[in-house]
């Protein structure tokens, strides 16, 4: 189970709405073994032509976030990004975006197998019910959904 404060979920969803239809991305930080205490929104550094269905951290920004976290005794507990209603996204049978890792997401997850992956799916910018889900690797190396408990 991945526990997340309601105010952090609100910050993540607000960031996804601001960046819509581009994919938003960021990191959840906190003490190792504990629940996240802060969300750090980051710029999508992927090619602007593909930002509607792809994301990437800028390595320099990622290093800054990592260094700031270290000074606070924090670690990255989760990588966050959004999916929006655009072509090439994981879709449900209804054709709407789904908060589920794409093959590219899974490749990125493999680089940090101990970190959760939180995905927000927005059907539109003002989506009143965004889907927010958490994923991780299980002991066999398979990607599984980890129950997200918002507190």
From TrEMBL:
Alphabetic keyword roster: Hydrolase, Metal-binding, Metalloprotease, Protease, Zinc
Pfam family of this protein, just one? Answer: Prok-JAB
> Has the keyword Amino-acid biosynthesis been applied to this entry?
no
Checking CDD domains in the record gives: MPN_like (cd08070)
Q: Name one GO molecular function term.
A: metalloexopeptidase activity
Enumerate the InterPro entries for this protein.
JAB_dom_prok (IPR028090), VirAsm_ModProt (IPR051929)
Task: Answer whether the UniProt record assigns the keyword RNA-binding to this protein.
Answer: no
Q: Which residues form the JAB domain?
A: 6-90
Swiss-Prot/TrEMBL GO biological process terms: proteolysis
Q: What is this protein called?
A: M67 family peptidase
Classification from the root reads:
Bacteria, Bacillati, Actinomycetota, Actinomycetes, Pseudonocardiales
């Amino acid at each position: 189970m991945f526990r997340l404060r309601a105010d952090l979920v609100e910050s993540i969803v607000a960031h996804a709405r601001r960046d819509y239809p581009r994919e938003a991305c960021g990191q959840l930080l906190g003490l190792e073994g504990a629940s996240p205490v802060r969300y750090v929104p980051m710029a999508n550094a992927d090619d602007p032509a593909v930002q509607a269905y792809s994301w990437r951290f800028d390595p320099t920004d990622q290093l800054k976030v990592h260094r700031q976290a270290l000074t606070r005794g924090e670690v990255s507990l989760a990588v966050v990004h959004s999916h929006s209603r655009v072509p090439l996204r994981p879709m449900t049978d209804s054709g709407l975006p789904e908060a589920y890792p794409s093959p590219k997401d899974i490749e990125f997850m493999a680089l940090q197998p101990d970190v959760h992956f939180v995905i927000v799916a927005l059907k539109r910018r003002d989506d009143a019910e965004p889907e927010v889900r958490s994923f991780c690797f299980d002991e066999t190396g398979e990607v599984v959904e980890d129950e997200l408990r918002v507190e």
